[in-house]
């Protein structure tokens, strides 16, 4: 039998390996979960994993707990190597409390998720505010959920409590992204053809509205230095905006 060299994609597939599977519970009566799973996200430090369980429920799970569960299903070597790296990261970060699992009911269909972590040195870009409702410390970890009704809900990952309810979009929030510089600047992309920039260190106040798209906006991403935002949508074009 003749043999042929693998292309790049085939090599990647050959090297990849499934380490486990997480299943959402079926919920036929209250319709809170059990449908298609649309979005997942990792915390920047790898401590938490979140996914929409098919409707309005988001499950927040410590990633080390997921890996420990995978150990029970014959993937010991792979999971152990990842788990050891995660343990070193948590040790280096000096996390005080053990991560806990949370089930979050967002109240409507969840389309998008994003984690954001705070850097105290990054102050709010709104210089006229003398006090803030929330003061985020170095160990703050937030989860933003974009909903079918256009709302964005901000949750404390460690407690599972709702902190902010951002209401300005008029259609589905398709994507969310935090600035990677730790400033807690959040950008949302929506079917209402706009992107909105929120300053969570200024109690979630909206900084600006970006209207460069003529159709639905599907996704957005920051540049590594957090100065440029790129977005795509139904218009088949990439729109770039300078935010600094």
TrEMBL record:
Which keywords describe this protein according to UniProt? Answer: Repeat, Ubl conjugation pathway, WD repeat
SMART domains, alphabetically? WD40
What Pfam families does the record tag this protein with? WD40
Q: Which GO terms describe its biological process?
A: protein polyubiquitination
Q: Where are the WD repeats?
A: 136-165, 166-208
Q: Which gene encodes it?
A: WSB1-1
Q: What is this protein called?
A: WD repeat and SOCS box-containing protein 1 isoform B
Looking up PANTHER family in the UniProt record yields: WD REPEAT AND SOCS BOX-CONTAINING PROTEIN 1, WD40 REPEAT PROTEIN
């Amino acid at each position: 039998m003749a043999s042929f060299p693998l292309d790049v994609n085939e090599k990647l597939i050959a090297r990849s390996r499934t380490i486990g599977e997480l299943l959402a519970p079926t919920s036929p009566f209250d319709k809170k979960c059990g449908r298609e799973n649309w979005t997942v996200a990792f915390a920047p430090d790898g401590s938490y994993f979140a996914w929409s369980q098919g409707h309005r429920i988001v499950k927040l799970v410590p990633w080390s707990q997921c890996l420990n569960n995978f150990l029970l299903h014959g993937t010991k070597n792979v999971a152990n190597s990842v788990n050891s790296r995660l343990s070193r990261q948590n040790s280096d970060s000096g996390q005080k409390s053990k991560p806990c699992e949370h089930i979050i009911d967002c109240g409507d269909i969840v389309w998008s998720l994003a984690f954001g972590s705070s850097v105290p040195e990054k102050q709010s870009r709104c210089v006229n505010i003398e006090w803030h409702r929330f003061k985020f410390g170095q160990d703050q970890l937030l989860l933003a959920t974009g909903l079918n009704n256009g709302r964005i809900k901000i949750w404390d990952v460690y407690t599972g409590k709702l902190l902010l309810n951002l209401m300005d979009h008029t259609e589905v929030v398709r994507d969310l992204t935090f600035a990677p510089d730790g400033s807690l600047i959040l950008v949302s992309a929506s079917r209402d053809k706009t992107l909105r920039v929120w300053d969570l260190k200024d109690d979630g106040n909206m900084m600006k509205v970006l209207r460069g798209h003529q159709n639905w906006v599907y996704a957005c991403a920051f540049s590594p230095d957090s100065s440029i935002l790129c977005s795509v949508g139904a218009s088949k074009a990439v729109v770039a905006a300078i935010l600094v």
